[in-house]
Amino acid sequence: MNENKKTGNKFTKWFGRTSDTNLLLTITIVVFFLMYIGAIVFQGQGFLKPQTFFNILNANAALIITSVGLSIVMICGGIDISVGGVVALVSMSCAVYLDFHNGSILGAIGIALAIGLVFGMVQGFLVAYLDIQPFIVTLAGMFFARGMTTIVHTAPFNVENEAFVQLKDTRVIVPGFGSYNKLGNYVNAYVEIGVIVAVLVVITFFIILRWTKLGRSFYAVGGNAQSALMLGINVKRTRFLSHLICGVLAGIAGFVYFMHVGSGSASHASGMEMNAIASSIIGGTMLTGGVGNIIGTFFGVLSLSTIQNIVSSAGLDQAWWTGITIAAMLCIFLVVQSVVIANKKKMLTK
Amino acid sequence: MASTKTKKFTFNKQLLIPLAAIVALALFNLVVDPSFFKVTLGTNSAGNPVLSGYLITILDYGSELAILAIGMTLVTAASGGQDISVGATIAIAGSVILKVLCGNNSRPETLQAPIIVAFLVACVVAMLFGAFNGILVAYFKIQPMVATLILFTAGRSIAAWINNNELPIISEPSFGYFGGYIPGIPIPTPFFIALVCVIVIMLVLKFTTLGLYTQSVGINGSSSRLNGINPQFIKFLTFVILGLCVAVAGLIKVSRLSTINYSVIAKDIEMDAILAVALGGNALSGGKFNMTASILGAYVIQFLTTTLYKMNVNSEALSAYKAVVVIVLVVLSTPVVRKELSKLFAKKSSKQAVKEVA
After folding, report:
1. Which residues of chain B neighbour A132 with C-beta distances below 8 Å?
2. How many Å lie between the alpha carbon of A82 and the closest alpha carbon of chain B?
């Protein structure tokens, strides 16, 4: 072991010492920048405009928020596949409330948070205190949310509530970024309100996971529940809280999604849970628990959507190419992760 | 001898959950509307005698699920995870069958190849995709749900790509036999196909070491390796077997419609298949399994679905009711609740005993 340290160069030293979390995070960020640079080189000017980047954020603010929630559950060793259904239910309920009952924006936000809270609490209770497998519980949660969405209202419709439309069209200008359009006028880059919410969520939970007792206990429980219990961590309460946070974040994401699309439909956010899981994994969270990072998740979402953008701007319009490329990317990431971790274990045991 | 065997059979605790669910559902239907159990013999549009009734529907449409549950149980037991790509792989298998049968013409007058050839090709393709999942899980040590997420995202796209996004329609009536009725036999064919699959797997479990090895790998992979079992190969093998089950289910699915809809075919069936395993009382974290319970679990789910349909529940809202029933069943079967319940019963019976003594 000592000899190896002496003879090994700087990189292997760093490689051996760094934690799994940081290692996977580094891979993700490097790959994202390589991909974006590749897109600029091969696809030309479109990706050079700041607005292209901010549009990716605009379209994926809700996905970022759900992925953060999912990462926390996954770090804690669980899984939540109900988030897509919750997002659809929230947007449909808010749409019905605003349009048919002439509700206020604040009321709609309240509904969104309440739905998220209820889902998080019930699922968390079933998983943590009744010891049912999280997959089954949240699977039922997903079925329930999707079914409820059609019970609330069946046909898709656009919301025309004035206050809401105003909120939906609010653009926040990003100072310092902008580009010249075809007429030669300088146009400022903008983001929607949802992006600001998403960034706040990412920063908040990054801090919580890194520096608070609760955050560290998520890692402890996910890494090894038995040892966590012996360290005096309330494992059941921690599991419950992870699902609760995920549920509330899904509620917030539902409202952000609703602000982006401005309509209610039963088919909204279909497959979102799988995209969120994929983003978390690409961002270096492991489903076995104990390993993960919120910043990585953020870059995971960006990588996923950049790939989608590259595919659609490369003229491969046929719908199937998106699915196949995302899957191929996921495959490569997973194999790289597994090989890197296996190699590291070998190096450490040498 | 026979009596002791049946006694053992009924007192198998694991079978109790799906059987109790079936009894509960049957009682519910009996109370609400006894006509649920009516089975009538009529003739279909082709003039063949067919049995119809809700019970027949359950046997008919539960078949694909039962076939998938076989493979899913093995995968769950060996790897402690589930395959969520079965729906997408069914789309691929169906697409392959249609491609082989139709060739490049999407509305063929005559079939381009015998059905059996198309089926065998689909089997090989589905087993290859199963092997892909198996390699990721067994040799790259990726969690099953994550590894199969890859095909879950890509599967339907691949299925559309195989047939160039066209929707071939087969007019040959004999192709419809697999998902409908064989002339002269009033019982739906999928039930027979499921029956054959069940018999085959029961024989395999009885006469080979597959079941034993699968369970030992699921319970403790490293100690099975020390005992001379290759855990990686066993995991790989279960995924390949699931691939075969998927191909059979795919044949039934496309035969029902004689065509395919890539985004809708076998949608959410992976969830139902996993539920079947869970309702059968098998631990989703791997280890011991009971095949009969899983297969019963599959029919419980179809029983539930049919009951809800009969009560005029909107097909899109169906999932909400299903979710509630599933949660109730699962909550009742958790050790915590069961302990409390048995305490409650114990109190009651001890009180009764006291009364009787008095």
Report:
1. 330-331, 334
2. 12
Confidence (pLDDT) at A1: 39
User: Do B210 and B283 meet the contact criterion of CB atoms below 8 Å apart?
Assistant: no
Best probe of the A interface among B85, B89, B136, B146, by most A CBs < 10 A, is B146
Check residue B9 and give its pLDDT.
46
Predicted local distance difference test score (pLDDT) of residue B177: 85
Residue A239 has pLDDT above 90, yes or no: yes
Smallest Cβ–Cβ distance between B143 and the set A146, A287, A339 belongs to A287
Q: How far is CA A199 from CA A62, A222, B276, B292, in A?
A: 11, 25, 41, 50
pTM score, whole prediction? 0.81
Interface check for A125 against chain B (CB to CB < 8 A): the answer is no
* CA dist., res. A247 & res. A90, Å (int): 11
Provide ipTM, 2 decimals: 0.74
Side-chain half-sphere of A112: how many Cα atoms within 13 Å?
27
Task: Collect all residues of chain A within an 8 Å Cβ-Cβ radius of residue B279.
Answer: none
Rounded-to-integer distance, Cα B90 and Cα B96, Å: 10
- Between 1.10.3470, 1.25.10, 2.60.40, 3.20.20, what CATH number should domain A22-341 receive? 1.10.3470
Q: Strand runs (DSSP E) across chain B, as ranges?
A: 40-43, 49-52
Q: Do B271 and A139 touch (CB under 8 A)?
A: yes
Q: The CATH number of B2-312 is which of 1.10.20, 1.10.3470, 1.20.1300, 1.25.40?
A: 1.10.3470
Question: Mean pLDDT lowest for which of A91-100, B68-77, B195-204, B258-267?
Answer: B258-267
CA distance B276 to B291: 11
Sequence spans of domains, chain A: 22-341
Cβ pairs A/B, distance under 8 A? 134
* Per-residue pLDDT reduced to its tens digit, B161-219: 888 878 888 888 888 888 888 887 888 899 999 999 999 999 999 999 999 999 999 99
Our CA-based measurement puts residue A171 at a distance from the nearest CA of chain B, in whole angstroms, of 33
CB contact under 8 A, B143 and A266: no
Contacts of B81 (CB under 8 A, 6+ apart): B75, B137, B143, B144, B145, B286
B315 interfacial to chain A (CB closer than 8 Å): no
